[in-house]
Write a structure and sequence with these properties.
The complex is a heterodimer of chains A (256) and B (537). Chain A is built from ten helices and no strands. Chain A has 256 residues and is an all-alpha fold. In chain A, α2 packs antiparallel against α3. Chain B has 537 residues and is mainly α. In chain B, α6 packs antiparallel against α7. Chain B has 20 helices and four strands. Classes of the chains: A mainly alpha (256), B mainly alpha (537). The interface between A and B is large, with 40 and 56 residues.
């Protein structure tokens, strides 16, 4: 800690960072975990800025928080926010043992790093004071580490190729047209008129509310199965009740 | 009037001096990988397989030629800059004797692996890989993809990228290059593991396990690299060595954890106990030719990188950390040997055997002598040849009804009577794993244990004794397979050895013949290894 203000900044940000990181570990829901790690990363970015590394600080916020974590959130939204991990221990006592070993490793490394005395800091290297951070960075990337930087492209290609191989489904055969779907429905005799539409009630009309069958039960066919899997279905009985009351009022009014 | 402000740039940029002829083998492999990506994207479905296999073979042979004809004569550091004092060059890539020997080893083994991997068994694409990696296992879509003749020809560029990473890994002169090399070689392997055609759930589970544990071990390596940078103020192995010999009293405590954490990352890749838990699952789940490639080439690359880190970078401080690695080596041999006794699946058995072999090789590494380097390099190449052939044969032993690999040991009963050639070859390879005289395995083990006894001190002698005892245990395992094949009544559910194309036959035969030849007349390769065992620093 060099100056008082830096120390104040550190002691405010550091607990928040640790809290965010712990949130990643202990949050039950994936979205909270993602937001926790995003919090930790923004704080780290601020700390980098305070330490005099503006490029690193900005990249930390833009790339990690802005791009990576937001992409992660998008994926979570697509997969379904409510899917949470199964937390059943398959090996007995595994969590206790791994916790003990993890804390042991943290203690060991913490004690080791705590013993180091770095002495007087050398200050910014000459290349940085002369040309600024970006140029110093470029000197390293295109000078000393140019071959490693080039080879990193192999990693990006592998990632793109892997995503294609593992996630892209090539369409096999023709996509069925509407005519083909209709013909198939008639041929099989199932849902000849199409699937039932979601319920339309006097005071409610939304895709998450199923239609009612003549016997008063909800029709599962009238709602998307994705919504059903996420448990986001509204119970229609309340709306049906309202409709019935209104009908009753209308009948009462006309007889009066 | 406006004032034009110009940024005055001090001329501080120093470009790295790059010898393209020294890097040519790697460049060829990467360029061919890129060409294969284009083939996978644009070539017609019927021509893809032939193009991919042809390009891979040309690329690997071309790289081998470039290595032996060109790069051999451009030894030295490359992609390098002068150090602060201006007295020597610090290179990201070091092309020296071990680099050339190990890169040539990777290329030859990869060449053989491609020949087996390209086996079609009468289909349109390589038989080992699923027609569509994205289709759910057992789904309608998967069957439709099968019928439509889809292939995962992307497996070949992925393999070439892994080969490029391996070549960089054994030549890495600094910790940053080491890390990038590790990632470039690992990432394609994670994907390849998940692409098996049959028993796909097992394959996908293996890929996920490998990926998660691999990412974890990479993090350890990176943490260790950071600690070593904190210690030495440089990521170059030669500067770390100078810092160790000069002594850094304030920061001494960073050195041992740094070295050990880097070694954790490398020991994970070779499958040493206690970082071995992924090995059996991944070896079993991956497509069998990929398992052979992985077992041979990853082990070679990881041990090559470990040799360089240990001998060039951290040897000066070895009294403080080598005891940990000695314990790991002993555990690796014992656990690998004992666990292989209890296995009933051939692929898992070979996985535990590879763990035991990692322990034997570690024994050679811990000799801290040039004889250790040459013994380890000889061991890696011979073990790789035997492994590729062994997994090649496992790949061909099929269940008659389902067409999937018959990996359960009981299914191998009586194989020797029905398929004498395949069974005899496999039995011979098992003897080579066991280290019976007249096989390359014997010469390799003799070299590794000899180096340990001769130069490893008391711990080396103890390790050699443990090694010999573990070998004795593994002999039991291998002999059990041989007894199973020859002296047991054939099992109810019939198995057959499918007849592969001429390429795969040549590859398996070549490996088996070399296993014999290097057992009878190992002098040529031993001499080459001995001549190539000096690291540039």
């Amino acid at each position: 800690m060099t100056s008082g203000s830096e120390a104040v900044l550190f002691w405010i940000l550091a607990p928040i960072t640790v809290a965010g990181a712990l949130g990643l570990l202990f949050a039950r829901k994936a979205v909270y975990a993602a937001l926790g790690i995003a919090l930790a990363m923004v704080n780290l970015g601020v700390l980098y800025l305070a330490l005099g590394a503006p490029f690193l600080g900005v990249v930390q916020v833009v790339v990690y928080t802005g791009a990576v974590m937001m992409l992660f959130l998008f994926v979570l939204m697509l997969v379904g926010v409510d899917s949470s991990d199964s937390i059943v221990e398959t090996i007995k006592g595994q969590r206790v043992v791994s916790l003990a070993l993890g804390l042991g490793l943290v203690g060991l490394l913490g004690s080791v790093i705590g013993q180091v005395s770095v002495g007087a800091l050398p200050g910014e290297p000459k290349s940085v004071t002369d040309n600024g951070h970006i140029n110093a960075m470029a000197d390293l990337i295109f000078g000393k580490y140019v071959w490693v930087f080039e080879v990193t492209s192999a990693l990006l290609i592998t990632a793109a190729l892997g995503a294609m191989v593992l996630a892209h489904r090539e369409r096999i055969g023709e996509r069925p047209t509407q005519r083909a779907w209709a013909a198939r429905r008639v041929r099989t005799g199932e849902h000849v008129a199409g699937l039932p539409a979601p319920g339309v009630y006097a005071r409610h009309n939304a895709v998450d509310t199923p239609a009612l069958l003549p016997d008063g039960t909800a029709s599962e066919l009238s709602i998307s199965r994705v919504l059903a899997a996420r448990d986001q279905i509204e119970a229609p009985q309340g709306y049906a009740e309202i409709s019935r009351e209104m009908e009753q009022e209308i009948t009462e009014g006309s007889t009066r | 009037m406006t004032t034009v402000s110009t940024v005055v740039m001090a001329d501080t940029f120093t470009s790295a001096s790059i010898s393209y002829s020294a890097l040519m083998p790697m460049l060829i492999v990467f360029v061919v990988a890129l060409a294969e990506v284009l083939v996978a994207g644009f070539a017609t479905r019927e021509s893809r397989h032939a193009l991919q296999v042809g390009l891979s073979l040309i690329g690997l042979l071309g790289a081998l030629a470039a290595l032996l004809l060109g790069a051999r004569f451009h030894q030295g550091v490359t992609a390098s800059v002068a150090d602060a004092a201006g007295s020597r060059q610090l290179g990201a890539v070091v092309v020296d004797g071990p680099t050339i020997f190990l890169q040539a080893g990777v290329l030859v083994l990869a060449l053989l692996a491609v020949l087996i991997m390209s086996e079609r068994l009468g289909g349109i694409g390589a038989d080992a890989f699923t027609p569509m990696g994205a289709a759910n296992p057992g789904s309608v879509q998967e069957r439709a993809a099968q019928r439509a003749g889809l292939t995962t020809s992307e497996a070949f560029p992925l393999m070439m990228l892994a080969v490029g990473g391996m070549m960089l890994f054994v030549a890495a002169g600094d910790l940053l290059t080491l890390f990038v090399g590790l990632e470039v070689l690992s990432l394609p392997l994670y994907i390849l593991t998940g692409l098996a055609r049959r028993r796909r759930l097992l394959s996908q589970e293996a890929a996920l396990k490998y990926f998660l544990l691999g990412a974890f071990s990479s993090a350890f390596l990176l943490f260790g690299a950071a600690l070593l940078y904190g210690y030495a103020g440089s990521v170059y192995l030669s500067e770390i060595a100078s810092a160790i010999s000069a002594g850094q009293p304030d920061r001494e405590v960073l050195l041992v954890p740094g070295v050990l954490l880097v070694l954790v990352g490398l020991l994970f890749k070779v499958g040493a106990v206690p970082f071995h838990s992924w090995t059996p699952d991944v070896y079993q789940g991956a497509p069998t030719p990929v398992t052979g490639f992985m077992a041979a080439c990853t082990k070679l690359a990881a041990f090559g990188a470990m040799l360089r880190v240990v001998y060039v970078g951290a040897a000066g401080d070895r009294w403080n950390w080598s005891v940990v690695v000695v314990v790991i080596a002993a555990l690796t041999m014992i656990v690998g040997a004992v666990m292989s006794v209890t296995q009933t699946d051939v692929k898992r058995l070979l996985a535990y055997s590879s763990i035991a072999h990692a322990g034997f090789i570690l024994t050679g590494v811990l000799a801290f002598d040039v004889t250790g380097v040459s013994a380890v390099m000889f061991y890696l190449v011979t073990y790789g040849l035997t492994t590729i052939a062994a997994f090649g044969i496992v790949y061909l032993v099929r269940d008659v009804q389902s067409g999937s690999e018959a990996t359960h040991l009981s299914q191998w009963a009586g194989l020797g009577r029905k398929h004498p050639v395949a069974a005899a070859t496999f039995a011979f390879l098992m003897l080579a794993f066991a280290g019976i005289p007249l096989t390359s395995g014997f010469v390799a083990k003799l070299g590794a244990f000899g180096a340990a006894v001769g130069h490893g001190g008391a711990s080396g002698a103890v390790l050699a004794v443990i090694g010999v005892l573990s070998s004795a245990i593994t002999v039991f395992v291998y002999v059990r397979i041989i007894v199973m094949m020859y002296f047991t009544e054939p099992a109810e559910n019939a198995v057959e050895v499918v007849s592969p194309s001429i390429l795969a036959k040549v590859a398996i035969g070549f490996c088996a013949v070399l296993t014999l030849a290097l057992g009878i007349a190992p002098k040529l390769l031993l001499d080459w290894a001995a001549n190539a065992s000096l690291f540039l620093s």
